[in-house]
Amino acid sequence: xxxxxxxxxxxxxxxxxxxxxxxxxxxxxxxxxxxxxxxxxxxxxxxxxxxxxxxxxxxxxxxxxxxxxxxxxxxxxxxxxxxxxxxxxxxxxxxxxxxxxxxxxxxxxxxxxxxxxxxxxxxxxxxxxxxxxxxxxxxxxxxxxxxxxxxxxxxxxxxxxxxxxxxxxxxxxxxxxxxxxxxxxxxxxxxxxxxxxxxxxxxxxxxxxxxxxxxx
Length: 216
Ligand code: HEM
What we know:
Blueprint: H1 2-29, H2 34-37, H3 49-73, H4 76-81, H5 83-107, H6 115-140, H7 144-156, H8 160-174, H9 179-205, H10 210-215
The structure holds protoporphyrin IX containing FE (HEM).
Pfam family, one: DUF2306
Protein name: DUF2306 domain-containing protein
Transmembrane segments: 7-29, 49-76, 88-107, 119-139, 151-171, 177-198
């Protein structure tokens, strides 16, 4: 129980940090995304900057909503006190994930690193909503443990952007790899590392059997 509470506090602090940083950086510090776009070279399709920027803003807003609504729904207090709010908030999460994936689908063909990065992003665009679909199917079948597992797997992908930038930074600044290759590799690493972390959280915080969850 203590383990679960400390993990929740850590995730809440990290998410708060991401939301503040992403909002400040993308809407105040560098609203034209000059730093990020400076790494794009040899794009197959010309990027329409005003449209790309607007899509990116929508992407960031919904990404922040996924973090808030996801976190809220992991609160057992909220679940116990207001099931209806948990349900409504759950649908807000699902719609927000869909919006992040949709905007990501627009940006993927222009992504830094070209086709290799685009493929990785589009894999995420399929896997992430799929996880939400599995979470909804499980809860409709009253399989609480499965529902929680799928939501943990899904929520892990809310940290995709942070992990991509973290790995890119370490590879580029720490080990001297070219920025573009570091970025592409970091997308694939995130695709693999985040579900592994989710499985670690599942194994360390959830009971093993469906009956044990029902009894709680
Ligand atoms: C929920 C947390 C997320 C946040 C806060 C976030 C934020 C951002 C931001 C600020 C950008 C602009 C460039 C940058 O600074 O990275 C961006 C780009 C992008 N994001 Fe996200 N994102 C998140 C999750 C995702 C997920 C899960 C996907 C895939 C399903 C995704 C796909 C993309 C794509 C394709 C781009 C364009 C990359 C490029 O042009 O190279 N993002 N995101």
